[in-house]
Amino acid sequence: MNGGKAEYYSLAASWLATARTAYRALGSEEEMTVTLTDQEYQLLALEASKSGKQPEMLLRDMIRGLQASSIEQHLMTGRELAEKLYREGKLAGLATQRSLSKKEQEERERLVQQLAGGKPTSEMVIEDRGSY
């Protein structure tokens, strides 16, 4: 794309996003018709011919590029990632902010004692060092 016309592409993309939102608000999801003036279409066709594409394909490529850049701009928080994985069925549940009940705390402590067994690692390291 021509760098000098980047502003026009940005304005067109902004207009398309606004039109798409309005179109969806009316309950239409399948497709949208965009009306261009003859001059706008000629500019689009000229730019498309430079890259050897049809005007419609150039417009679709521009929109795909905008979608990709908007996805890149939004980094997911840890919570958003967990919710996405949960919706995809990759997580069995989501963490909550609630405290563990007394019974859950006792069970966790019992498991720690059962699995830990023996001396703490720090004591074993000190023993392995020997005397200086």
Explain what this protein looks like in three dimensions.
This protein has 132 residues and is mostly helical. It has a domain of 72 residues. It is built from six helices and no strands. The longest helix has 20 residues.
Summary keywords:
single chain; 132 residues; mainly alpha; 6 helices; 65% helix
Short description:
This protein has a domain at 3-74. The protein has six helices and no strands.
Major sheet size, sense and barrel closure: none
Low-confidence region ranges: none
Beta-strand content estimate:
under 5%
Radius of gyration: 29 Å
| SS field, number of helical segments | 6
Helix content: 55-70%
User: Which class of secondary structure composition applies to the elements?
Assistant: mainly alpha
Walk me through the topology.
Layout: H1 6-25, H2 38-50, H3 55-73, H4 78-87, H5 102-116, H6 121-129
Helix pairs in contact: 2-3
